[in-house]
């Protein structure tokens, strides 16, 4: 795989055991890594990641004593209609020795007690879009067991890290909506009835792909807004980018503590 060779040449051959894919306004985490940054454009198969607020670079190096690979942004289904757009990047990280994947995103909350500026640990998801990145995969490996997709042990470790940092980290169910338009209040009411606690336009395809590739997965949402119809705020991508850093500061503390614990 050409991308893997390039990454090894520039960042060294050591395995990156804990890759992280970041969402809107959360790419600052890559700046904290002591290592090498490689533009996605230099890595064959990596996405363009053309959403403002994302920084399309792979940063490989050390963070809190752990070798990590931070994806400074993701491509979304709504950009070109490809649910599997992140597959080459995740395959490359797996080939580099990744064993666990931490995903982050920006999301709208259904719960008043989890307001903008808070973070939520994802316990499960609703694939409200009905799309799947494994459609077209010819092997029987496509029949992925999604029970326990959000690794229970990783969730316990992240919860412990949050507790040690004094950061509230409630668990909840994340609903994937394809975007790019925001959901209607009627859709939010329906999702709430189905058991969702937050909604966003990413993450679920990467979780499915990661489980397909044998990676252990955890995911955390940064709450940037209340879901449609639940407050008077006007939903927009600019609002998402403005609010993301509030929760991102808490998220960085939790992730640093988690990585330091090994």
List the helices and strands and how they pair.
Layout: H1 2-11, E1 20-21, E2 34-39, E3 57-63, E4 66-71, H2 77-80, H3 87-95, E5 100-109, E6 119-126, H4 152-165, E7 171-176, H5 185-194, E8 198-200, H6 204-212, E9 216-226, H7 237-260
Parallel strand pairs: 1-4, 1-5, 5-9, 6-7, 7-8
Antiparallel strand pairs: 2-3, 3-4, 5-8, 6-9
Summed up, what is this model?
The chain has helices at residues 2-11, 77-80, 87-95, 152-165, 185-194, 204-212, 237-260; strands at 20-21, 34-39, 57-63, 66-71, 100-109, 119-126, 171-176, 198-200, 216-226.
Description:
The protein is an alpha/beta fold and 262 residues long. The chain has a single domain (2-260), classed as Nucleoside phosphorylase domain (Rossmann fold), CATH 3.40.50. The chain has 7 helices and 9 strands; from the N terminus they run αββββααββαβαβαβα. Strands 5-8-7-6-9 form a 5-stranded mixed barrel, surrounded by 4 helices. The radius of gyration is 17 Å and the shape is globular. The two termini are 29 Å apart.
């Amino acid at each position: 795989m050409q991308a893997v060779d390039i990454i090894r040449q520039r960042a060294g051959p050591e395995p990156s055991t804990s890759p992280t894919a970041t969402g809107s306004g959360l790419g600052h985490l890559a700046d904290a890594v002591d290592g090498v940054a490689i533009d996605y454009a230099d890595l064959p198969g990596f996405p363009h990641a053309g959403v403002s607020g994302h920084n399309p670079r792979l940063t490989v190096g050390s963070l809190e004593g752990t070798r990590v690979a931070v994806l400074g942004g993701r491509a979304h289904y709504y950009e070109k209609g490809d649910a599997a757009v992140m597959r080459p990047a995740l395959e490359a990280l797996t080939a580099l020795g990744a064993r666990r994947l931490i995903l982050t995103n920006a999301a709208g909350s259904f719960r008043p007690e989890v307001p903008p500026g808070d973070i939520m640990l994802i316990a499960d998801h609703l694939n409200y879009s009905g799309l799947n990145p494994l459609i077209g995969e010819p092997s029987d490996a496509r029949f992925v067991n999604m029970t326990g997709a959000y690794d229970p042990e990783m969730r316990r470790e992240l919860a412990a890290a949050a507790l040690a940092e004094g950061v509230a980290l409630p668990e909840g169910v994340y609903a994937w909506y394809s975007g790019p338009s925001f959901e209607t209040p009627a859709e939010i009411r329906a999702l709430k009835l189905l058991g969702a606690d937050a909604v966003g336009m990413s993450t679920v395809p990467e979780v499915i792909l990661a489980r397909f590739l044998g990676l252990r997965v955890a995911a955390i949402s940064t709450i940037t807004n209340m879901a449609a119809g639940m407050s008077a705020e006007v939903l927009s991508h600019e609002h998402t980018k403005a609010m993301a850093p509030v929760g991102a500061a808490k998220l960085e503390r939790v992730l640093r503590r988690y990585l330091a614990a090994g």
